[in-house]
Amino acid sequence: MKLDAVELREVALPLVSPFRTSLGTQTVRNALLVRVLSEEGEGWGECVAEDEPSYSPEYLAGAADVIKRFMIPALAGLDLDPAAVGPALGRLRGHPMAKAAVEMAVLDCWLRAHRTSLAAHLGGVRRRVRVGVSVGIAESVDALLTTVDRHLSAGYARIKLKIEPGWDLEPVRAVRETFGDGVMLTVDANTAYRLADLRHLAKLDAYGLALVEQPFAPGDLHAHAALAARMDTPVCLDESITSAEDAAEAIRRGACSIVNIKPGRVGGYLEARRIHDLARANGVPVWCGGMLETGLGRAANLALASLPGFTLPGDISATERYYHRDITRPFVLDGGEMAVPDSPGLGVLPEPADLEAATTSVETVRC
Ligand SMILES: O=C(O)CCC(=O)N[C@@H](C(=O)O)c1ccccc1
Hints:
35% of the residues lie in helices and 22% in strands. The protein is α/β, with parallel strands linked by helices. The chain is globular and about 60 Å long. The longest helix is centred in the N-terminal third of the chain and has 18 residues, at 96-113. The structure holds N-succinyl phenylglycine. N-succinyl phenylglycine binds at residues 21, 23, 50, 55, 134, 188, 190, 238, 289-292, 315, 317.
């Protein structure tokens, strides 16, 4: 499959409410969409880089630049199938979210032409997946409890609470005491703590959490292993894992016993599957993380979450949790689960009117 052109489109989706994490507060999701055009048809990819390099070193404008100046020329003229994209971009260092978006678009185009769903191509075994919801840092414990109550009433299978120094033990205790032991509860620190906080974090053991996610800096496997040795609650890594090699090293060092897999963070859905396979071979459960994706990324994440090793609910919320209006049809929650798209490719396309309404810039690069 040869590329004729690649369209880079930025869209802006206002959030239904501010989303506060230890990294900052977000009120709009600006996303970079990649559309590849070939003789076989078109394919869509989504780059999950944030506006600024806060979650990881990538940022939206930089991703658009590296795709335009280096990735598209590296793929032009090649006879591509999805497995060829990674190697063709291999000499370009870093930029996993940009690489993931390009590979995702080629995957979608190729799979549509071959009448195969992404879930089938990846090896999915489920038609529906249990999903959780991420709850930001709130103005008060009361406000937090109101939000958690709403999400539990909606049927989410797991509640993830964002924590940071000064907002951790008290809100977690309040949620556990208010909603009881039956709720699957996790916390996510987004690297906000230091090794000196270890004794304090170990107190989270009192609340029966399913996992503690990424308390320390991405490169600090030692601190995560030290915490894992001190806590009964499993340690889960997110930002630390950017490849299958990272996952193997983190598991070998006892730095995690659960992995949050985000396709953008690791360079694409095919690397995500490699991490899934490696984790499964080591008896390590995985789940699919979220980056406030549009319906394109949401659909692809549901396909990934249908693989056998994805045994924990992921951050694949219903569209309404983040957006009044998306660029695709809305994804809805049904009894704590969501249906895995089973039509060719991603199984979803942007709705032209919604896409137009959200578009802030479009650029087409001829190959
Ligand atoms: O549900 C979602 O899509 C978001 C889930 C979520 O909490 N994402 C967090 C994370 O660190 O996992 C995040 C996303 C974007 C930016 C910062 C943090």
